[in-house]
Amino acid sequence: MVDARELAANKTGDDDFLEVTFHDFRRYFATNLFYRKGINIEFIAALGGWEDPDYMKEEYLDPYFDDVIERHLAQKGVLDIETDHQSDFEKVLSKMNELENRIDTLDRTLAADTIEVGSEELETEESDGDHSLEEFL
């Protein structure tokens, strides 16, 4: 946790990150899953180690994220806007999906190259028997 705080403070230049606690992280985790991803509260409580989902909901969920408020108001028709704002969490998930796709493409490419190299080796081994040593000298 200390390393993560220092890294965040160094990357952003914001020393407030040095004050982040494990409790803050749990609150952020629960809030993102519930409000931004719509995950079932009982599942979040089980995943986060809370025995009582109602306690977790009362003490840990923080609905005061600008994008969450904006999205809810737009969905209720209070704001006449389209909400395409991505949270930091959604941006990270998007980048992870892009990386996963790149890795899958790389795996397929490597697998295809391995098959080609294997078939070339087979052809070479077979053709060696058809030639005499004198032909190569």
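^ that was protein a. below is b, sequence first then the tokens
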Amino acid sequence: MYGLDLSSNQLSGEIPVEVWDLKNIISLNFSSNCLIGSIPDSISNLKNLESLDLSNNKLHGNIPPQLADLNNLGYFNVSYNDLSGEIPFKAHLVTFEATSYIGNDQLCGLPTNKSCKISKDFEKQFKEEEEEEEEGDGLIDMVWFYWTSGGVFISTSLVLFASLFIDSRWSREWFYRVDLFVHRVQSFKGRFLCN
């Protein structure tokens, strides 16, 4: 088999993996269907491929850089899919025009005029926002830590003050020490002001 044209047949699902084993195939046309999935790296098995049309489907993911290994590829069209990432623009792939890629909003690089730097900056910003959200989860734990610490402090203080109000030897000793401390502070203050 040298050519396979299954265009406009309302095909759905992924492209069967057996297709990528047709080593002598020259032309593949799966355009205008409802195919999903990604273009597999095993496309590099089709060394004799001269024409590949996957346009007007629902394919997603990156365009595999292995396409550059297909030296005979003269026609290539993946327009109007959901492909994303940087277009592999090397070897003979530089000969394909922007029309081969239109309708894929997430594709960037040559031959389109869309910069991949913006996409990379967006991905970096998205990752930073995710990290901040994860750190934000840690802040919620810190808030609970502060509330718990405050509750423990208040409870301990109440128990301490309650025990001081009970007439016991320990509470009398405590008030004596506090009174002695206040007296020393006042005498130190009096000496300091007089000098």
